[in-house]
Design brief:
Glutathione S-transferase Yfyf (Class Pi), Chain A, domain 2; 16 strands; 5-stranded parallel sheet; 22% strand; alpha/beta; single chain
């Protein structure tokens, strides 16, 4: 759990600090453009991810600052985490307890999952958005998964270039062997995650579909699936309209079924879809805690959207029991009046120090 968060030259925050006073629910309110979402984005960066907006590093730096930024957090176990970016450097730098560390090591101390207004359309938009969302969940549970998916993307790009340049079969054979192994490893991780997540779900169920996933679900061993997919790759080395047309984990999809309504989630109302989305996040938090004993951060941007008062209260009550620290944003503080054990922070144009210093004094009292 985060006990304090400091932002320096991050988005529109020049120098902001939040002390959580040990609360599990942190509610950040303020007008549009005041820097609420930037706080959640900073937290997502601290978990080792690229950030909930997927922005370039230079775009996260304050426009009238020095071109860089830093995000620093103290955890309840006294661990210190920081991520910084310097102008002109293509990489972020991470530190754990003051020592330089790989970004991937941050997830050992802090894991985060988020819901933004974009995810409100998760079940009705295209498969690539669902795949990206669920792969983030899998990565939060299995830290090696994000590396596998990034590696697959790179290998597929290399394969397309090789085909366009008329590469010899030896080069393509080597690429296809790597691709087949990576694809099956991704599919195994997705299937295992979906199965374990479903154990913690009561009102909905998750499924994953795709070419290599079906091989494994139908009973193939990982080795047999890898050999079968390798044969598929070797038989599909033709470009169509200068494009490589391949099936595989990069085309797979996730489905969610609402058990109460007996309908796929995409056929239910917007509010019901949001409720199912929250159920997924709750189950994920329970799963991560059960398997790793780690608390996670749940980041809810515009948390009140599409939820009535009862659903909103039930969401926070459930989240409080899920071994997660919840950071939520909204325009109006009164909407969150019933949120239990909440720490309220008002954000005004990124400059929130004065308000927070006053609140810190109350924490100490």
């Amino acid at each position: 759990m985060i006990t304090s968060l400091s932002l320096t030259d991050f988005r529109n925050h020049k120098n902001s600090r939040i002390d959580t006073c040990g609360q599990h629910n942190i509610v950040i309110t303020g007008p549009n453009g005041s820097g609420k979402t930037a706080v959640l984005e900073a937290l997502s960066v601290l978990s080792g991810e690229r950030g909930m907006r997927g922005a370039q590093m230079q775009d996260m730096a304050r426009f009238d600052g020095n071109g860089g930024f830093s995000v620093f957090a103290n955890l309840s176990d006294e661990t210190e985490l920081s991520v910084s970016y310097l102008s002109g450097d293509s990489n972020r730098r991470a530190k754990i307890d003051g020592d330089n560390a790989p970004l991937s090591d941050l997830s050992k101390h802090l894991r985060a999952v988020w819901i933004t207004p974009k995810e409100d359309r998760l079940f009705v938009d295209n498969a690539s958005d669902r795949r990206a969302f669920f792969d983030r969940l899998v990565s939060s549970f299995d830290s090696a998964h994000s590396g596998r998916t990034a590696r697959l993307s790179k290998l597929l790009t290399e394969r397309a270039i090789a085909l366009k340049n008329g590469a010899d079969s030896n080069w393509l054979d080597a690429l296809d062997i790597q691709i087949a192994g990576t694809c099956v490893a991704i599919s195994v991780a997705r299937i295992q995650y979906a199965g374990q997540l479903n154990y913690f779900l009561s009102r909905c169920a998750v499924s994953v579909s795709g070419m290599t996933e079906k091989m494994l679900i139908d009973g193939m061993t990982a080795g047999d699936a890898e050999r079968a997919y390798l044969a598929y790759l070797q038989n599909n080395r033709v470009l169509i309209n200068d494009k490589m047309i391949l099936d595989g984990p990069h085309k797979s999809d996730f489905g969610v079924f609402n058990k109460e309504l007996e309908l796929p989630a995409h056929l239910t109302s917007t509010g019901q879809q949001k409720t199912v989305l929250i159920d997924l996040i709750l189950a994920h938090a329970h799963l991560v805690y059960t398997k790793t004993s780690n608390h996670i951060l749940v980041l809810l941007d515009e948390a009140a959207a599409h939820l009535d008062a009862t659903a909103r209260l039930n969401m926070f009550l459930s989240l409080e029991k899920s071994h997660a620290q919840v950071w939520a944003t909204g325009l109006d503080e009164s909407v969150f009046a019933d949120v239990p054990n909440a720490k309220f922070v008002t954000c005004l144009g990124g400059e929130i120090n004065n308000i927070l210093h006053a609140e810190k004094k109350l924490c100490q009292e």
